[in-house]
Write a structure and sequence with these properties.
Strand order of the largest sheet: 18-19-21-22-23-24-25-26
Largest sheet: 8 strands, mixed, barrel
Radius of gyration: 41 Å
Bound molecules: ligand C2E, magnesium ion
Shape: elongated
Number of domains: 4
CATH superfamily of the largest domain: EAL domain
Number of strands: 27
Distance between the termini: 119 Å
Structural class: alpha+beta
Length: 720
């Protein structure tokens, strides 16, 4: 430390140059020196601090031993960085504050210690560990002031040489990398922390400037600062620059520099204190990434999306263009999780995100909105068609199946699109509208795109309140099952009943299942409704007596929605409900539509097999309106096919419907399936179907669906 020997009188300026708040304290914890930053951070003057016990400022400081064991302290070299602690600080403002504090011995015999503090954090919850000692936590007040009076003499008795020696030690012990340099930027003295920061020895550094280990792009920054200080404009300056560690690592640094001037005001030498902020930067970059991205897919999260949307809206307004929000929801993703487990589900989400990413334009933002929902923000469009085109391109990425391990998954999605102009509604409303459009897309079937219209928004509001009300209605007993007789077209006897759900709304009256079943299917409510239907229908069937001696007990048919049909708990549920009711399995028929059966044909066949095993029958509902492929029909092999009403009561192109009706009945009979015609209203319709050899029928000609007691009465009444 030759420099200090030569420049004794300049050393005193060094302490104030420390980038952190620093205090020299004696073995008893008495404050002996403080620098400017320490005064700034605590808000006290030198007079208020000097001679005071440091624990009046940091009541939780305890003993040095808390930072390092006495043994460690005795043997540690001053350069060993001490652990940093978050301590409560009683500053002049009186507010609850916290500071990051390190304590290091200034000399081997631990007579003096250097306390350095960074960052005063205001009003945070106290860390659990920091329990204050009630005996020392009294707020600093007049009592301290008076104590200081007596100590002042003490302080002044410290000789200049002693103080300088302590500063020199402070320089060496400081955790902050520090350098002294001459007016040309050549190092006169460097401390250990600085050597460590740039990975070079003191010998290598002394006499040279920092060019050799400055990150190339940042060469010149320091020189500019020197120039600024030399010009007399400022005496101290804080700036950021990057150094290169010997191992090639880039060190992000925050440099505080100040200068000492001679009598003529000429800058004589410089003291720089450096803070290595590399880790902080990396951490804050990581934290801000984590705060704004979805951890699974790495896509933007809601928060980032909302921010981008906000900006996009104002840009769109300025540039007189249009933007679009696309909300995509995977079709029946729950099925993937239920069938293959969440790991496969997660993997699928990642791969879908990757496919979407590949076609995301740089100007656009792709976000995982949560669960199986994705949002896409498109900007700079000229027409709503363009937005729909993007939606179709996104869907097209799902055409190829996904291979996860040895599992092959076909995954489709539905996308709702809403465009916005200058006068667009706010973020929340835009996403809500995209959601309403997505609902419409789902309604059209899997893999569809729908563009938002105000009517959809209106429907969404109604839908939402209806679902809420339906949930309550089920509990309140306002939902019930009605039964429509199924009749043998030859004998006119009742062979069974179809259970149809009814909701009697307290204000709106009867709400048809065509309205509320699809709503319930959008939420988990369908599961509860399905159980209710099954349980009620079996309870009703258990009371029905034999009406037709040939056919035995009448059976009951229960409608299943696609979601219920593919629910892994279906078979167990049916089994336990059959047991509970005591109804023979042959008397239960489950109605599924082709659409529901064909969501996943392999899975459907598996379910059918299990149901066959239980001896429960399957009826293919609304036959003729769906895919109606011969090969599907043969593969599914249902017990009953129910010809849709539109063939029985055609509204247009009667001839074609007639031909189809005939073909379906013939086909069903040939395949040995029972054919049932729905919606028979007139005797003419009945006669025609009878002539075609259609076995069973249902319709207003006999009866609409009626409450259970009426259905039971119907069984005992003579028919004909
Ligand atoms: P679906 O299964 O095809 O039921 C037949 C529908 O046709 C019933 O309408 C019935 O009331 C009606 N219908 C019967 N005969 C005639 C007729 O002669 N003329 C006319 N015009 N209509 C007739 P509903 O009860 O409104 O049910 C509509 C749909 O709601 C059902 O179609 C079924 O898909 C669904 N649904 C009803 N109950 C349930 C249920 O408990 N669970 C599920 N998942 N869906 C149900
Ligand atoms: Mg049905
Ligand atoms: Mg039907």
């Amino acid at each position: 430390m030759g420099y200090f020997a030569d420049h004794q009188s300049n050393v005193l300026g060094l302490f104030d140059a420390l980038a952190c708040g620093a205090a020299v304290i004696d073995a008893n914890g008495r404050i002996d020196e403080v620098n400017r930053r320490f005064r700034d951070l605590t808000g006290y003057t030198s007079r208020q601090l000097l001679g005071r016990d440091i624990r009046e400022v940091f009541p939780d400081l305890g003993r040095l031993a808390e930072f390092a064991s006495p043994d460690e302290l005795a043997t540690a070299t001053p350069r060993v960085a001490r652990a940093e602690k978050l301590l409560r600080l009683i500053g002049a403002s009186g507010a609850d504050q916290y500071a990051l504090v390190t304590l290091s011995p200034l000399s081997g015999d631990s007579t003096w210690s250097l306390l350095e503090m960074r960052e005063v954090l205001a009003e945070m919850d106290p860390p659990v560990a920091a329990e204050s000692d009630p005996t020392v936590s009294a707020p600093v007040g007049s009592q301290v002031e008076s104590a200081l009076e007596g100590l002042e003499g003490d302080f002044h008795s410290t000789s200049l040489a002693q103080r300088e020696e302590r500063f020199r030690l402070a320089f060496e012990a400081s955790m902050a990398p520090m350098v002294f340099s001459d007016r040309d930027g050549r190092f006169l003295a460097v401390n250990g922390a600085f050597c460590r920061m740039c990975g070079r020895s003191e010998e290598e550094l002394l006499g040279n400037d920092s060019t050799a280990f400055t990150y190339p792009d940042d060469i010149g920054i320091t020189e500019d600062v020197y120039q600024l200080i030399r010009s007399g404009a400022v005496d101290e300056y804080r700036y950021g620059k990057r150094f290169l560690h010997r191992n090639g690592r880039i060190v992000f640094a925050e440099v505080s520099i100040c200068c000492s001037r001679d009598e003529k005001g000429e800058a004589q030498y410089y003291v720089s204190s450096v803070r290595d902020v590399t880790e902080e930067r990396a951490l804050s970059a990581q934290l801000s990434f984590q705060a704004l991205h979805d951890p699974l897919t790495g896509l933007a999260n809601r928060a980032l999306f909302e921010d981008r949307l906000l900006q996009a809206r104002s840009r769109t307004e300025r540039e007189k263009k249009i933007g679009a929000v696309l909300l995509g929801d995977l079709d029946d993703f729950k099925g993937v999780n239920d069938t293959y487990g969440h790991l496969v589900g997660d993997q699928l989400l990642i791969e879908i995100a990757n496919r979407f990413k590949e076609i995301t334009r740089t100007s656009d933002t792709l976000c995982r909105f949560g669960g199986d929902e994705f949002l896409y923000l498109a900007e700079g469009l000229t027409s709503p068609d363009e937005a729909q085109l993007i939606a179709r391109r996104l869907l097209a990425t799902l055409d190829e199946p996904f291979i996860i391990g040895d599992i092959r998954v076909d995954q489709k999605a539905s996308i709702g699109v809403v465009v916005f102009h200058g006068d667009s509604p706010d973020n929340v409303e835009l996403v809500q509208n995209a959601d309403a459009a997505m609902y419409e897309a789902k309604r059209r079937g899997q893999g569809h795109v729908a563009l938002y219209t105000p009517q959809m928004g209106h429907d969404a509001v109604t839908r939402f309140s209806l679902v809420q009300e339906l949930r309550q209605a089920l509990v309140a007993g306002d939902v019930s099952m009605h039964y429509q007789p199924i009749v043998d077209l030859t004998s006119s006897s009742i062979v069974g009943f179809e259970a149809l759900m009814r909701w009697h709304h307290r204000e709106r009256g009867w709400i048809p299942p065509d309205i509320f079943i699809p709503l319930a299917e959008q939420s988990d409510l369908i599961v509860a409704l399905g159980e209710f239907a099954l349980r009620s229908a079996l309870a009703a069937a258990s009371t029905w007596e034999i009406s037709d001696p040939v056919r035995g007990h009448p059976y009951v048919t229960v409608n299943l929605s696609a979601q219920q049909f593919h629910d892994p708990g279906l078979v167990t549920l049916i089994q336990s409900e059959l047991e509970r009711s005591g109804v023979a399995p042959e008397r239960l028929v489950l109605e599924v539509t082709e659409g529901a059966a064909l969501v996943d044909i392999t899975e459907t066949l598996g379910i059918m097999e299990q149901l066959n095993h239980l001896r429960v029958g399957i009826a293919l509902d609304d036959f003729g309106t769906g895919y109606s492929s011969l090969s599907y029909l043969a593969a599914l092999n249902p017990k009953i096919i129910k010809i849709d009403q539109s063939f029985v009561r055609p509204t247009h192109d009667k001839r074609r419907s007639d031909t189809l009706l005939e073909a379906i009945v013939t086909l069903g009979n040939k395949l040995n399936m029972t054919v049932l015609a729905e919606g028979i209203e007139t005797t003419a319709q009945l006669d025609r179907l009878h002539n075609l050899d259609c076995e069973l029928g249902q319709g207003f000609l006999w009866s609409p669906a009626v409450p259970v007691d009426q259905a039971t009465t119907m069984l005992s009444a003579p028919h004909g």
